[in-house]
């Protein structure tokens, strides 16, 4: 078993509601000094169901409330400790880091690890192992998740006019809902985060992680562990082409994400595919089926109003009747360009960005005389269209009702892959194009209401609901690897009872997990040893039975 101390740091969050049948005990460890943070004695009026009578109490109550939501969703025999504090974090008058959280340690190749050679968040590793892999006093690295939240929010230098809402009812008004942000940040700590170096693509100490197992590039047609560092670095900024492939998330996408994605679909040449767009604040909103036409480069005079002949800043000189005009961003406002194209007969406008980066941002501006739709596409996509203009280029610009907002055309959830990379945000969030809004988007949306939407299925995919079926797919079912009344390993009958647990799984299923997860005989024996020590500690088997099972494991061919 290998372990690494690890501190992840992320961004913001949001969410929805989930069934409560599982249980994990999640404890908030208060590491604030007296008088500040959770210990702030400033009087507060109970509100929104939070009964605290001081600011500090209300903060602590909100933390425990959010912890209990996750605790009711996840299932673990090992208590999860969240080392928590309120502390000044990065902040300006217009932007703030609300909070951050991540696992304190990561483990791989521990007993009952579903995926050999993959890092796991410590809370999940503990759950799978069935015991605390890192026992020790609170307030040390023996805790499982570290969470820091911004104590200055709402101060004159830190998003003045905002501030935390500590109520439990999501009725936060213009304030920022602490429970929502907590659910998001705890999500990172519990399993919604990858550990590779997003700048270089390098794996953590050379090993992939369980989160990355389900990160998949539709460009390279590879998952994160299958890539070279360079491929991983490239895929990290490949907007619109990184999806989550876990089967539980994919199965839930139709019930969570709505149909309708604003896109440019290149009909001819079809090899160019579909383009992500930035939408305009002016003109008609994109519709379905949208506007279809041949693309023409709009040409204007090169002059002081716009030095380029393709910037659309002065009157267009070629006939664009019935065409979708292609223009470059720059020099003049978006509404000037679109109006000039409209005056030349265009039925729609594509504005190609003039700087690299993706996804394309929206377009601001006001002009009530604009009656044709317009969108912004990335520089790379604009260049691809221009390169194809030696032949016919036909596109549809509109809301593609066949593609769900936040999913790829195959129905898999998109991950956030902006270009350039955003270290605390890239890949470890859903794509912000998702609609309805999701808890684990990079920024907190104000309409979230304390649910965990697709993140619950993500937790299933990475193994939070594994119960010993030996299949690393997170599907909650046993394979009943042996129905024998006693534990038998490779024909060696230990005589120990093959106890069936509340999950329906037997001890033999757990041993099968060791078989699947261990790379060699030594790892298998070590895994069975840890398992049987845990079973004896729980009173499931006797010391003699433990010895008998371990003896059979030592003689097994695995
Ligand atoms: Zn985040």
What does this structure look like?
The protein is of the alpha/beta class. 23% of the residues lie in helices and 18% in strands. The strands form six sheets. Strands 14-13-20-16-17-18-19-15 form an eight-stranded mixed β-sheet, sandwiched between helices. Strands 2-3-7-4 form a four-stranded mixed β-sheet, with helices on one face. Strands 1-5-6 form a three-stranded antiparallel β-sheet. Helix 1 links the parallel strand 2 and strand 3. Helix 10 packs antiparallel against helix 11. It is globular. About 5% of the residues have low confidence. Zinc ion binds next to helix 3. Zinc ion (ZN) binds next to helix 3.
The gist of it:
The protein has helices spanning 55-73, 122-129, 178-190, 229-236, 247-256, 334-343, 379-388, 453-462, 507-517, 521-537, 543-555, and strands spanning 2-5, 26-30, 80-87, 99-103, 105-108, 120-121, 145-150, 164-165, 176-177, 215-217, 222-223, 242-244, 259-268, 274-276, 278-279, 291-297, 324-328, 348-352, 374-377, 394-404, 486-489, 492-497. The protein has 558 residues and is an alpha/beta fold. The strands form six sheets. It has an eight-stranded mixed β-sheet, with helices on both faces. Strands 2-3-7-4 form a four-stranded mixed β-sheet, covered by helices on one side. A three-stranded antiparallel β-sheet has the order 1-5-6.
